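With this grant's support, we have settled on a layout for protein records. A representative record follows, to show the layout.
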Amino acid sequence: GQLVESGGGLVQPGGSLRLSCAGSGFTFSASVMSWYRQAPGKEREWVAICNSEGGTTHYADSVKGRFTISRDDAKNTAYLQMNNLKVEDTAVYYCKAWPEGIWGQGTQVTVSS
């Protein structure tokens, strides 16, 4: 199986981005999907999770109210809508499928004026 993230880039503080995570080679609809991020010099941290039916989501306190995780199983794709971005959101963002344990290659998000 494989996951490919896209949608990262450079954005000003207060701006928005939507990340995508396209899955292939496994049963995407049966997988729990998560987003993680890793800032320079820091450990990878969990950001958000969405259950296999999309009805249950949870967020890290640092992004709650600003980020939204969702999924479109018809497209085998998970999303992370990021609003009101802050400088401290700068990181490489990764998606992960569970229980397969598949990670994507990451997409860079830079928040800077």
